[in-house]
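Internal QA ticket QA-208
Title: Verify multi-chain structure generation after dependency bump
Assignee: T.L.

Test input:
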Amino acid sequence: MTLNEWLPLIIVASSLVPGLVIFFLAEHQVTARTVLNLFGATLKLLLVLVVYYGILRGNEYEFRYDIGVDLEFSLRVDLLSLLFAILSSILWLVTTLYAISYLEGSPNRRRFFGFFSICVTASTGIALSGNIVTFFIFYEFLTLATYPLVVHRGTEAALQAGRTYLWYTIGGGTVLFVGVVWLFVLGGSMEFDRTGALAGLAGEHSGQLKILFWVLIGGLGVKAALVPLHGWLPIAMVAPAPVSALLHAVAVVKAGAFGILRVVYDVYGIELAEELGLLTGLAVIASVTIIYGSMRALAQDDLKRRLAYSTVSQLSYIALGTATLGVTGSIGALVHLVHQGVMKITLFFCAGNLAETLGLHKVSELNGVGRRMPLTMAAFTVAAFGMIGLPPIAGFVSKWYLGLGALEAGRPWIVAVLLTSSMLNAAYFLPIVHAAWFREPDGEWTVKRRARYLETSWMLLAPAIATAVLSLAIGLFAATQWSPLEMARQIAEAWYADR
Amino acid sequence: MTWALTIGLPLLLAFVVPVARLRPGWYGAVLGAAALPALYAGMAGAAPAQMSWLLLESSFGLDGTRRVLLSFTALLWGIAGVYAGAYLAHDRSRGPFAFFFLLTMAGNLALVAAEDVPGFYTGFVLMTFASYGLVIHNRSHEALRAGRIYLVMAILGELFLLAGIYLVVAAADSLLLVDMGAALAEMPLRNPALLLLLAGFGVKAGAVPLYFWLPLAHPVAPTPASAVLSGAMIKAGLLGWIHFSPAGSAPLPGWSGVLIALGLIAAFGAVVIGLFQTDPKTNLAYSSISQMGLMTVLFGIGLAATEARDTTAPALALYAWNHGLAKGALFLGVGVALAADRAKGWVLAGLALPALTIAGAPFTGGAFTKYGLKEAVAFTPGAWSDPILWLLPLSALGTSLLLGRFLLLTWKKMGSEAGHGSFRGLATSWLVLLGIVAIGVPWARGHFGLETPVPSASPEQLFDSAWPVAVAAGLLFWAARILKGKQSLPTVPPGDFLLPIERLVSAVRDIWRHRGLPDLRQGAINFVPIVDRILALEGTWRIVDRVERRLGSWNVVGFLFALIALGFILILG
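Actual output:
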């Protein structure tokens, strides 16, 4: 086997191995653990970028291992897997940095960082999966790896949240399992490169294919937090801030959204899905989720809960774009996969900073906090404006393509959904921004954590600022060659190339 | 380079000035200098530039109308910036003011210079949201209320706008603003798109019926900010209309009629309501609505026939120039008047100049622009033109009355805030602006090559433009005699029919809260407790037990096995 065949496996291992080693380190070996974590994260990012460079030059990267009975474990790199892999590598690196500082001095850090790495391994595996069976393995792996992170604090609320999380995700996993087996029976292990592998079966089995689609979406919809399967997400936000950040940006929820992308474009093929009349249903579910999530977010006073409902809403933009026939809509879905991640992780970092530095958890406590923590709130403001969809921040570019895509597909009502959502986003984000910058503080701040020069520890501040700058940059320079938009464009154009 | 500086310099300064701990004396120079590249670009007519790395491939450049717009916008921003330096000499939060002022400036300049839709929209959004910081600068109860209403209306406008933009861009298959008109003319959803765009930009332009935030927000901002809000930024709405109108591609007599009617309602309605205001700045805000009404009429005429645009476009540009600078001078003049501890008569005389200009008195710039409007009326469809020709002088009478009342209100408050700001500092930049207002219109007409008709100095035409001003002066004098000593003149709250709207909103909110409609804070969806409840039932386990026992018997298992085998055969077959 050549290096090109091993590379996908090495990328997955680059976080798995450090994770496993960390379990064998002692709790107090902080330096060793930190070095391992950062080494793994940096290595993964570099490898992913090397592979990206290779793909652009026409190389192929594929690892295959025969499990037996026609089952094959396959890791293959295409542009879509890279889009997700690059996102998760970058965000893993910044979140690791953040988590090291966030959890400083708290117990059970060995367990935390061990499972944290394994969690990233799972999401990278999901990104690189070459067929639906491999995808399913990593998908379930992710469920189990995340549970210890959700219950990390060990409080009554955390354990309760963990239980809810498991019920939902294992329930969803079971349904997905049924779907995957069914698919396997119909069409084999469903390699993701044969676009529309099911197309040949359409005439004979169209009824089955329709039911199967909803079974798959039902399974994936739990992690993708489609209403009414989203209930676990706002509850799971009891987890420590870095976990919520990763959960809401790349790991769990994106696994669901990414799965929906794979099912629609690589398993069914967009034309078949349209032919079977599946896209309208998906678009309706996504729209309901978008509006419902925003309405609920509006009513939350707990900052992280508000952000969690906002995730429910924003995530469904991806499903909505997926369900929009046409290159423009697909670009919108793909690019939002990245944009939502970068913006949402910024918001969670900021929420974490507020909680960790000043002990603030509620929206109603944020009056005047902009003067005390200007850099944090500046990052928050950028990301929140991006979520509303204001230019020149990333969210604007997503909405631009989603809106135009909806019209291209002849579904103007989607534009109405998008704009209603923008309005609701403004209604739940702007009061926070207003209170932070323009209101007088209610009293003295109770400072939990002090830093000598900055408003809080630089390791908490730097990740938030970095991702906020990134949110701005990928919007402002969307037209350049290296932007997520350009990558999304290439992927989408390849999907529609045969038309 | 010119374009990068035009937008980049104010942007850069916005982030530098608040943290640079400048000495108070430097603020005016810095805020004023930020507009210089834009002023140069407009006056010299900078060549277009492509920035393919920016946003979705932005480009900047100018056409005839936008060159005029950019020039007076930059001029007003620059002078207001210098003025702000003196105005805020004792204001401790001048850092935040500078931040929002410069950001808003950058947005305003960018939207005028942009040649592509995303760039234009970005500038528009930046201007809209940054100016919120200007509106609520002094944090008073009125300012916060005005800010809230401003923001709600701005966001609504933004949504209409974006919906309209999506529709047109999807139809045009292009991102360049020049392609939008033609696309609008041909697209199947033309009317909904036009409605959305007219409404979206109409919020900013203070058009009827979306104007009511304006008399609250414009006056409550610090005076230099009021000047740019009412002089420059209000024109962004107009520019949006111009960009997204099919004028020149297809005649739209229906829309033309609607706009002319709405414009006339604004022109007269705002005068009536404005007369009942007691604050000079609010009075000016209503005058802006009224003047924007006349510009709406002119814009509406441009839609009536394809060839009309060649006449209305330069007339509109000149009208905007005159109103922008004169209205700016009036707002800045209010600040000068309040600070005046001497030379009060001269200040009043100075204020009279832009007032007369806006009213279109003879030998002022306004006489040129009103004449341009009058000549354009020829293009209106049949029955419209005669009534409009009748109404135009009446509107000039209304404007004269309104601004006459403004002068009286200002005279009463003259010197009431003396000692707060530096009178000399304020007056210097104001005098420069007055000078430009005095000679600017004929100069601009020549410099920018605007082919608008020139009023002759014949007695007839002099009379035409003089009588409304004279009659208004007489009426005001008479009214002042009659009302002398009577203090209880009726007033209309600023924002007029906003009050019923606010009541309606709070009534709806009450109904939602108290009449059992879903409370969004309660009732999250969570299936786990339901599952728990099912598992906790005794019956559940009894059923499980029973099933378990049945499965122990061979014939049940054998039957199930046969069933599964059959199912597989069916699926695989």
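Spot checks passed. The mean pLDDT of chain A is 92.
Status: verified.
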